[in-house]
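Q: Sequence in, structure out?
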Amino acid sequence: MILQYTVRRIVHALPILIGVNILTFALFFFVNTPDDIARVHLGGKYVTKEAIQDWKRIHDYHLPLFYNSEEQGTEALTETIFFKKSIKLFVFNFGISDTGRDIVQAIKERYLPSLQLAVPSFFIGFWINVVLALLLVMFRGTYLDLSGTWICVALMSISTLFFMVIGQYWLAKIFHWVPISGYADGWGAIKFLMMPILISIFASIGSTARWYRALFLEEIHKEYVRTARAKGLSSSTVLFRHVLGNALIPILTGIVAVLPLLFMGSLLMESFFSIPGLGSYTIDAIREQDFAIVRAMVFLGTVLYIVGLILTDISYVWVDKRIQLQ
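A: Exactly. Output:
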């Protein structure tokens, strides 16, 4: 059943991938023309028209965008920039970037720093937020719950960029506990990643813990909670075993939006702290108007998001046996 469901979802995902690819292409070339891209990569606005045309021919940007009126039959669609640049994505052949770099090789070199930053931030932050939310629910109506809720609202109102600047100033410049920015291979990466991980976790507490608290508060008023308490179970057992288990479905739904970041990295965090991950790679490509990298990273992020949705639906069955995959 799971195999059939997965295959069916993959087939249904193909139109989504095509739509995202078309939208990315249209948005990119709505802002940039092939001449603009060529001019950027050739080093300035004073390049000759001949040099621009040569660059465009080498990189297949001399063709029409979507429809080639000079061709007949299917070639009117295939002899276009969209087809030439997009069709290979569906077999994960990302090709060469507009600056001449192998995109797949760059992904292989950069995915590890992204994972080193995203995985600890995700898992540690998840359990911290769950525990904090359960504690607020356990002491609901008390000053601890009230003050905790106010703190969560305050943290939600503060930009992540503010935490980055404060973290760099106090942890790196004043106390010299960690480097301001940068990255190192091997175990040396720990000292560079500690501050970004801490900031990622701290910045997520406000919104996430408050959302989990709302989910848990909704669960504690249900019949199964009253039944568990009537059997003499302690409040901590009811919360951490029964309430948490039944609230996992909406939590899993929210987690799926974060799953692509486990591989794609954080655009803002990596760029700010000079971490050579896939997030900073994407930002650099946007800045350099490298469409080949942009489309590859957007396509890869979409694929990861769809995979996350499928895994989430499958995990629903594991969490709640009453759910059937259809």
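DSSP finds 16 helices and no strands in the chain.
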